[in-house]
Design goal:
The chain is mainly α. It has helices spanning about 1-30, 40-55, 60-90, 95-130. It has one domain (about 1-130). The protein contains four helices and no strands.
């Protein structure tokens, strides 16, 4: 019974650390960066919520979880600052049409990096679980 209590304490402590780091990263990024793409912050909050709720309670190194979440947040910032400019620069004359297509495809394209980092987090957690220790 004592081991179960320690396991629960570790899960909740990882969960709380994940929430606090997520909040601090979002506040830091939002204060130092001007978001031309308003959805960037939304995608970052969505990614952090999914990542914290599903990855942080699992067994695994807290450092690896924090590192992966931070890399995901950095990917979100880079992707959402480069991707819109790239798409809109491809067809400058058809801005209205490209803008509508971009608005439709943007959530789907952003889901690619969200799912990739979430899957990477799952694989790190399963690596820890499948180790012989």
């Amino acid at each position: 019974m004592h081991i179960d209590a320690l396991t629960s304490l570790r899960k909740y402590s990882h969960f709380l650390v994940g929430i606090s780091i997520s909040i601090s990263q979002i506040l830091t990024y939002s204060s130092f960066s001007s978001f031309e793409n308003d959805l960037c912050l939304t995608y970052m909050v969505l990614f952090n919520g999914i990542f914290i709720l599903t990855i942080f309670p699992l067994k695994g190194s807290l450092f690896e979880k924090i590192l992966l979440m931070s890399m995901g947040n950095l990917t979100c910032l880079v992707w959402n600052n480069i991707y819109p400019r790239f798409v809109l620069s491809l067809f400058p004359k058809e801005m209205d049409f490209v803008s509508k297509v971009y608005s439709f495809l943007n959530p789907w394209v952003n889901s690619l990096w969200i799912v990739s980092f979430w899957t990477l987090g799952i694989s790190f957690a399963s690596k820890e679980r499948s180790s012989p220790n």
